[in-house]
């Protein structure tokens, strides 16, 4: 009962935070057919700055961190990227009315990571004065890349089987290279590389951090507008995608919370780190995933995986999962 009351309190408070407020504001603008438009070039710049900041801060912390503490969460992140995709694929494989390639693409997107949700969770934890290891955001690629690559491989295997071809004809190395070269992952990995090998501390504090919250609010505005527009598209697809979009973030996050708790006991992973790790797992890719899947699985219907992710999954991850795991951590730790 205490957990429920605490969650409801934080859930209401979450609607008052700038992050979710801008997300809802964007949806309202789209609902009233506003002509407000954020140019694609500005959107890409916003994404680049956010990921570079997250990457550099994570790289700096990795450089100074105890690697023995990091190794287990890194392993868990990698495993979760694979497990969550397999769970999603299994769910959709049990439904005859769902086109399997659409289910695989959706599972891949929910197994991958949302930079905007990650950034939103970091802001909330900082506002709540909840400590977490600054290298935790660096777990992003260890979960994101395996999930996207696995979903692309599974989709290609499924397509090849329908065409009567064998697994040997799938270029797995090419798929991995394509995923790593994506703009979002490239920016994040570059930030990690610079933070780990260079000394960008002053640049981080004077340029990237002051822009972070402002750019995040702009990203949430864009996400809100896209979420509303995708709701109409989602109505054309099976209702199973809506159901998956509601429950997958919570289930994936709870799996991560359990693994994070194991890391807490064994290597001293902080409660704040467990919360952020859970939110990372509950998020679904909104930056690196969609263009990667659209290019790699062209036969999948974007209205299914984008609609389920943008319209359902992201609001659930931000509005429900963040306060849920903060409240759960207060009970467990």
The residue ranges in which pLDDT falls below 50 over 5 or more consecutive positions are: none
Mean pLDDT: 82
H/E topology pattern? HHHHHHHHHHHHHH
Please tell me the total number of domains. 1
The major beta sheet can be summarized as: none
Determine the CATH topology: Na+/H+ antiporter like fold
CATH class group: Mainly Alpha
How many beta-strand elements? Answer: 0
Estimate what percentage of residues fall within beta strands: under 5%
Question: What Rg is obtained from the alpha carbons, in whole angstroms?
Answer: 19 Å
H/I helix tally: 14
SS content category = mainly alpha
Q: What is the first-to-last residue Cα distance? A: 17 Å
Q: What shape does the CA trace take?
A: globular
> Which bin fits the share of residues in helices?
over 70%
- CATH architecture label: Up-down Bundle
Protein described:
With 333 residues, this protein is mainly α. It has one domain: Na+/H+ antiporter like fold (Up-down Bundle). It has 14 helices and no strands. The chain is globular. The protein starts with a helix and ends with a helix.
Architecture blueprint of SSEs:
Blueprint: H1 2-14, H2 18-31, H3 40-64, H4 67-93, H5 100-111, H6 115-127, H7 140-162, H8 172-180, H9 183-197, H10 201-234, H11 240-267, H12 271-282, H13 289-296, H14 302-332
Helix pairs in contact: 1-14, 2-10, 3-9, 3-10, 4-5, 4-7, 4-11, 5-7, 5-11, 5-14, 6-10, 6-12, 6-14, 7-8, 10-14, 11-12, 11-14, 12-14
């Amino acid at each position: 009962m205490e957990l429920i009351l605490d969650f409801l309190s934080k859930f209401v408070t979450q609607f008052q935070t700038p992050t979710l407020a801008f997300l809802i504001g964007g949806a309202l603008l789209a609902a009233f057919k506003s002509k407000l438009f954020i140019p694609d070039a500005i959107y890409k710049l916003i994404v680049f700055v956010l990921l570079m900041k997250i990457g550099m801060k994570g790289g700096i912390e990795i450089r100074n961190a105890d690697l023995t503490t990091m190794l287990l969460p890194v392993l868990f992140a990698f495993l979760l990227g694979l497990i969550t995709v397999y769970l999603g694929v299994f769910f959709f494989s049990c439904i005859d009315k769902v086109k399997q390639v659409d289910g695989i693409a959706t599972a891949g997107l929910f197994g991958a990571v949302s930079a905007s949700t990650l950034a939103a969770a970091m802001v909330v934890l900082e506002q709540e004065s909840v400590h977490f290891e600054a290298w935790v955001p660096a777990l992003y690629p260890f979960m994101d890349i395996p999930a996207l690559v696995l979903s692309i491989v599974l989709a290609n295997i499924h397509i090849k089987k329908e065409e009567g071809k064998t697994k040997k004809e799938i270029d797995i190395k090419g798929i991995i290279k394509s995923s790593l070269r994506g703009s979002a992952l490239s920016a994040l990995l570059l930030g990690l590389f610079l933070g780990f090998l260079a000394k960008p501390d002053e640049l981080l504090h004077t340029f990237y951090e002051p822009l972070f919250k402002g750019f995040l609010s702009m990203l949430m505005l864009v996400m809100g507008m896209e979420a509303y527009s995708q709701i109409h598209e989602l109505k054309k697809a099976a209702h199973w995608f809506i159901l998956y979009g509601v429950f997958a973030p919570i289930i994936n996050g709870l799996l991560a919370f359990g693994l994070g708790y194991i890391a807490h006991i064994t290597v001293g992973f902080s409660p704040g780190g467990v919360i952020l790790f859970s939110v990372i797992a509950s998020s679904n890719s909104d930056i690196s995933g969609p263009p990667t899947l659209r290019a790699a699985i062209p036969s999948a219907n974007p209205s299914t995986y984008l609609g389920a992710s943008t319209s359902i999954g992201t609001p659930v991850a931000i509005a429900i999962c963040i306060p849920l795991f903060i409240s759960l951590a207060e009970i467990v730790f």
